[in-house]
Each structure stands twice: as structure tokens, then as C-alpha cells.
């Protein structure tokens, strides 16, 4: 996600990334630093499950990538439904459950077919 965000900030320099996570914020900042990304454009919020809709609603879009492992082929991410109920456009990768069909049918998201610079550029355009 940070690789995508780095490309996004090149096209839209005023973009900010809010991570909602239960993990340690340093994990995100350490990875951002390795990629020479400015911390000023990244926020990390440790949020309880009941706080997620409020924090998610402050954004213009939501992005989440799930590794397309065999075990994910039959899954349906709960967060996708939660974000869609907020009217939030999604940026998401394919090959996870029925996500691709739902986003294509609903027209409410951008699907990445691969994690690559050309795919990121196409999604940003």
C-alpha cells in the first residue's frame, strides 16, 4: 500500500494517508522511511473496531490490499462491506474472494490486477 501511496503522492502531492490499525504505528513509519516517504503525509491511528467507521469517513477513498493467497480465494473481507456502507470508493486488489465482481458490478472502486508501478499508474489515472 505504501508503494501505491508513493506513486499517488507524485501525481497528487497534497494527498495524505491515514492508516487505521491495531498494529504498532512504528511499523508503518519504519517502512515509509525505508521508501524515503515523508512522515508528514502519513497518519497512523490505533482505532478500536467501533471507532473505525468514524475515522474511515474522514477520507475520500479507502485502500486495502490483501495478499492473493489460496486461502483468500473464498473469503470476503468484512471491511469492504463496512466501507461500502459509508459510500467510500475503494482501491483494492483482485484475486480475493468475490471482491472483483462486487466492485465491477457496483462501479464503486478501482481494482489492481497486480502490484506493479504500471498498475499503480493506471489506477491513479
Write up this protein:
- With 125 residues, the protein is an alpha/beta fold.
- It has one domain: Glycogen Phosphorylase B (Rossmann fold).
- 39% of the residues lie in helices and 17% in strands.
- The protein has 6 helices and 5 strands.
- It has helices spanning 2-11, 25-34, 52-56, 78-85, 99-106, 117-124; strands at residues 17-21, 42-46, 62-64, 90-93, 109-112.
- Strands 3-4-5 form a 3-stranded parallel beta sheet, with helices on both faces.
- Helix 2 links the parallel strand 1 (17-21) and strand 2 (42-46).
- Helix 1 packs across helix 6 (117-124).
- It is globular.
- The two termini are 17 Å apart.
- The model has no long low-confidence stretch (mean pLDDT 86).
Features:
single chain; 125 residues; alpha/beta; Rossmann fold; 3-stranded parallel beta sheet; 39% helix
Amino acid at each position: 500500500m505504501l508503494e501505491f501511496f508513493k506513486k499517488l503522492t507524485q501525481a497528487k502531492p497534497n494527498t495524505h494517508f491515514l492508516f487505521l490499525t491495531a498494529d504498532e504505528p512504528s511499523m508503518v513509519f519504519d517502512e515509509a522511511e525505508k521508501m524515503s516517504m515523508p512522515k508528514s503525509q502519513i497518519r497512523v491511528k490505533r482505532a478500536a473496531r467501533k471507532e473505525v467507521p468514524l475515522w474511515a469517513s474522514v477520507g475520500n477513498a479507502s485502500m486495502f490490499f490483501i495478499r492473493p493467497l489460496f486461502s483468500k480465494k473464498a473469503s470476503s473481507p468484512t471491511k469492504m462491506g463496512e466501507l461500502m456502507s459509508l459510500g467510500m470508493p475503494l482501491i483494492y486488489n483482485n484475486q480475493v474472494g468475490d471482491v472483483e465482481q462486487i466492485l465491477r458490478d457496483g462501479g464503486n472502486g478501482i481494482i489492481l490486477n497486480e502490484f506493479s508501478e504500471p498498475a499503480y499508474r493506471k489506477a491513479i489515472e
